[in-house]
Amino acid sequence: MYIDSHCHILDERLNAEEEIARMPEDGLAALVEHGFDLNSSRRASALAQAHERVYCAVGCHPEEADSFDAAQEEEYLALCALSKTVAVGEIGLDYCYEIASRARQKQVFIAQLELAHRAGKPVDLHIRDAYGDAFDILRECRELLGNGVLLHCYGGSAEMVERFLQFDAYFAFGGVITFKNAKKDEVVRRVPLDRLLLETDCPYMTPVPFRGKVNRPAYVKYVAQKAGEILGMSAEEAGRLTAENAMRYYRITDIAAR
Length: 258
Hints:
The chain is α/β, with parallel strands linked by helices. It has helices at residues 16-21, 23-26, 38-50, 70-80, 102-119, 131-140, 158-164, 185-190, 220-231, 235-250; strands at 2-7, 28-34, 54-58, 85-94, 123-128, 149-151, 170-173, 196-198.
């Protein structure tokens, strides 16, 4: 069985109800729908509340940082109080397009670390072209990280893995590790086995052999196949290992990864 630790099945390119209905035949024990702003977080929460084995993370993506304010913070806290909300995310820094200024992104990132601490939730981080600044913020805010840290779609170096492990971080990998020129094998190997998660980030980042098409939670098994190949285990073993890690990180206790 597999857990897709990060997906966006409410995207218009997918039919969320169909994806959920197909979870048993796709071998999915659970999935975690992620918000990226307040509206998508509300929708993710409603989806999780309506379905078994569907969980959610709520938060403001760095590209949406200009929309974050005190009123939104209170609503995010209310969403965090619901039983199926397992994390605050995806939050962090994204310097690729700088839709929001770096200063504003940092401000909102820190505010949401504080929010997660107040809510007693782990944080799922979106970091793009900003690993140095992200590390510095986490080091400065270390007292806020006691509920857990996950680097979603980890794109940093093997050396940075060692640095983020100072915060007992988890690392999630998606379809990128299946790409021919990804050169991620050493990075995956550097992550301790009990800190490794798998994801799709669907509808984005579709793995080989479906690259170029819309991604689906079911395709996490192809990420598991590649992770298993890198680590010298079967796809099923990689799936079970990473599902157990996801349940521990997200404190999911009402399912069993078989």
